[in-house]
């Protein structure tokens, strides 16, 4: 009979415990650094103009956008973002909708003209991204990723989903860049 009196309390405790477990399961976990950073992620010998030109040509044929990733091998947040690009929830979205070009900024002394052309403000830090359609039109330029270590997979997915190209299966991408 005593257990009947405590039934509301037991129900409340069970509900709180279930809620705590469910909340912990969906906690925003920050992006993680790779086990081994790629020392050639941003190739110093790359010709960024040619790489972008090739990416734009491929993007037109594959109905994708181009994602320009401005950064440097010395930047841990650049490696964290790159590691995120290879996570199971992100990689298919990235590969299906984008061609990625890593643009080396050196010690903020390389490819500055390209950053300006693609509306990327390097003064805020790297990695900085630009989304460009297959015709070379800048859809979005951002330095929002310079603190990738504070971001979650959901943040990256939301960004990639917003700027993916217009297709029959994706009728509502983000709006184009306006200055």
CATH second-level architecture of the domain at 48-163: 3-Layer(aba) Sandwich
How would you sum up the global shape? globular
Question: How are the strands ordered across the major sheet?
Answer: 2-1-3-4
- Structure classification: alpha+beta
In percent terms, what proportion of residues is strand?
Answer: 5-15%
Distance from first to last alpha carbon: 72 Å
Number of helices: 7
Instruction: Provide the helix percentage.
Output: 40-55%
Give the helix/strand layout.
Layout: H1 2-5, H2 7-25, H3 48-62, E1 65-71, H4 76-85, H5 91-97, E2 98-104, H6 112-117, E3 128-132, E4 138-142, H7 153-163
In summary, what is this structure?
This protein is an alpha+beta fold. The protein has a domain at 48-163: Glutaredoxin (3-Layer(aba) Sandwich), CATH 3.40.30.10. The chain is built from 7 helices and 4 strands.
Please describe the structure with a list of short key phrases separated by commas or semicolons.
four-stranded mixed beta sheet, alpha+beta, 179 residues, disordered C terminus, Glutaredoxin
